[in-house]
Model the fold of this input.
Amino acid sequence: MKKLLVSAVACTVALTGASFSQAQNPHGANAAKYGIAVVDVTYIFKEYPKFKGIMDGMKKEMEGAEAQLKADRDRIQQMEERRDTLQPSSDEFKKLDENLARQKADFNIKAGTIRRDFMEREAEVYMQTYREVANAVRVYATSNNIGLVIRYNGDDVAATENRQDVLRAINQPIVYQNSIDITPDVIGLLSRGAVPAGGPTAQAPGARTVR
Done:
């Protein structure tokens, strides 16, 4: 019985390891062979369903907030138009002008707060997603005996005339890679939720190992 349990556990471990394998990705077929891989982090962000869902939700929230700000701005503009029809020396003009000054100040504070809040939330989503991506890369690399994963850009810029794209292609450090692109594997891990939560993230590029 004990032998059967050990065999079952061994099979489970093997199957778990298989979920991190690169058998389904021909673009990364040689990564384990060479012990080195490349990954397109920008592409992963574009294709990661969880990240896309969060950003789409935030975009709708921002559109709603912008619509409310537009309504406030239109109301203030109407008040300005009414004020301009009054005699500047009249009490009503002075009262409305003071009210407008307060409402403009409140509007600027409200607009600034909303935009700052969205920017902070957006930055947090990007950082959290990057941690998830880095953790997925670590899990995959560890499972496939890959010792180094280098970030690269997999976009095909051969036919583009965009100056920025051409410069980016010229400056990127990867000139050639022979089927060591593990980007589809990392996207697969993230999309399936197959990455253990709470694990340490991959060591940041440039970070030094304490010996």
